[in-house]
Amino acid sequence: MKNSMKLLALVLVAAAALFGAVQPAQAQAQGTTAVSVNVNGIVILYYYSSVNVTMPADLLGSQAVSAGAAAPTAVAVATGAEATLANPTSATPVSLAAMNLDILNAWSVRSLNTASGTTQVTISGTQDTLTAGAGNVITIDDRQVRATSGAFGATSTFPSAGTFVTPQTGDVRLVLDMSATTATGNFAGGNYTLTAVNL
Amino acid sequence: MWAERGRLPSIGLRLAGAALVSLCTWPAAGVPPAPPRPAVGFQIELPRLVELDSIGGRDLLATGNAPTNGLVTGLSFDLGSYSAAGASRPHALRARVVRRVEKLWRVALEGSTKESDAHEVRVELIAPDGTVGALGVAGEPAAKIAIRAVPLNPVRIEEGGTAFLQGGVELELDLATARQAGRYEGSISVTVIPR
Lengths: 199, 195
What we know:
By secondary structure, chain A is mostly beta strands. Chain A has helices at 2-21, 59-63; strands at residues 29-39, 42-47, 75-76, 83-86, 99-112, 118-124, 129-133, 136-147, 155-159, 168-177, 193-198.
């Protein structure tokens, strides 16, 4: 009987030790529920509300070359060499009726779209004439747009994916007719409109 | 003493031995331990689904961005004059959209929770692929929105003669981490611990 009591005591001590090793159930409540949210398509267009370029005084003198002359190079016409003015068909004589004014980095777009969706930037305009004085004008003959390193056209389409974080930047080309330009001056009045949409 | 060798152990000894065996075999090897059991009467109630208000262009206006127009379907940001020195580039987008869920959970104040005035609340967002702190588009592992969850201070309410502790959450969705539009899903895990 004495040995039995010792064994019982030993078992109780072991049991107590084991109980002590087990953490008591923590008084807490936990639950989980489903959650969802719709993220609609978003397009953000960054643009410049005014574009002011200064053509070098000797621009036409150096660019208006005769047939067979070397191709004219682009000339910076804005701070930071962002915009350039160049002959559209460099191997042929410069045509004052079709001078390309390229406005680089003129726009940027952020887009949230479907995974395989694309975004399209379109250019248009309502005022074609820049006037410095009576009979002294520059006419915008055409407006084009491109995503950086793309090709100029009436529209530019590019994949939307990733552009919400890293905007897609692009350029604007104005094809200028300077055949009716008779004197230097401050030419104002033309415009262009950019529109960005998710397709 | 030897005369007692053939006797069965006493009742107390047998019960203690059974208890010891039970402790040694629980939990069974290879079986994950059961989650902590809540105290009696300490059950949390949550809705089956939390549908947040959809996110669109207007939310970007509310986050401090300054567009030229306020069209919901398209936002235009004027960068100023192109010829200005150091012409502007697209600025960083303030795209942290906040959604509040005022009544997300509640627990009845009875049993062990009745006397507790302070509770610790943990809220966690989990995307379908298991990513913590995000919601995701099902089937599009790369499509996620990072979310920060801030529990709202619980309040005591009465309903049908029963006192409840009710709480919500403020979710801050970082839209700048989104790669695409669509339906983002996941789950909210709420843990309430009386102090």
